[in-house]
């Protein structure tokens, strides 16, 4: 039994039955990190001694009769954007390379209270900007399915760590695809949650940011397990949903016969998709037909979503990172400087127009998803690209002028308040992973997970593990 390749749900079951101890689970993962992480560079801060001590304490609590939490004994390295008390949170920037917070972010608190064991932090792009994980502090994260390829981002370290067996669950965040793109690139599962499903605190904006937090795992059930701990209301977060996280712990089994499925392989002609990716995702509509679904090619009205996303993203970057540009303009990568400066050009009218248009798009998508239960689309428009590139400059013959252009298939769905799941959909002829995006109505996170679980069971694409040197 290779402990490091077991599903998180199975690990929890074995630990609760005392067939494994938390210390054994953590020790096995630390040993694998030592062997494999040097070639993947997914985990960038590690506290092995602290993790083993925490695991031993967790085992002792079980012996004393304390009821274990739903994540009891599972090791996790947190995304290096999330505040971790006593452990550095660098944001992938030299400006914060030695920053050690004195508090845990709410998400970190909940996951550790759920029984998970902190082992370290996972790599990100500089200030989590862009969907390719590299930064001047730790370098690039490499894709376990092709070490010369990108792992995606900004939760690229998290996705690569999952794929490489360095941890069984992972946290992340998603503004324009930062949970979904790396999940697609690394053949794992990532869920962009409905805004408010996972409250974020502390935060500069508690009133409707594009960014949400969410779970990642190697299976849909593992993602649901982690979400059950991350989700639930918090009085400091006015948009947090009242539904308790426990609802995601119930089995995800669902008969998909009769499900109304919209199929949007290029989002109604709005995005170019590389032929190698298109060839993989085109086959997935047939899977849903074989499961008894009614599949129609259709896409909601997403006109204007591109401008809305870019406007609100630029405003958020200026709000959160403008101070760093003023203090140390030469310390930020050019694409990040560009994005902040785009925010500084905005007027009040620009922001008001974006907010109004976002409302219109949300309602248009909501009406569309009254006719269909879910929408299917590619997660990413390209397969994992060479790790030395900052971003793909051409997609299916069309130039990509900025570091976010190639992410449209993901970020257009960041504008309406819809949950979107990235689930493994197969591989290109070169053996590189491709993800399928399953989008559902606002607040239908559980329904999206149920559909994803049925699709996962029918295909088994996520069971194909990478071959790594050890």
UniProtKB/TrEMBL annotation:
- EC main class here is ligase
| Molecular-function GO term, any one | transferase activity
Question: What organism does this protein naturally occur in?
Answer: Streptomyces formicae
**PROSITE patterns named among the record's database cross-references:** AMIDASES (PS00571)
Q: What is its EC number?
A: 6.3.5.6, 6.3.5.7
* Top-level taxonomic group: Bacteria
Where does the Amidase domain lie?
24-449
Keywords attached to this Swiss-Prot or TrEMBL record, sorted alphabetically, are:
Ligase, Transferase
Ligase recorded as keyword? yes
Transmembrane stretches, by residue range? none
Instruction: Give the protein name, as stated in the record.
Output: Aspartyl-tRNA(Asn) amidotransferase subunit A, Glutamyl-tRNA(Gln) amidotransferase subunit A
Q: Which InterPro entries match?
A: Amidase, Amidase_CS, Amidase_dom, AS_sf
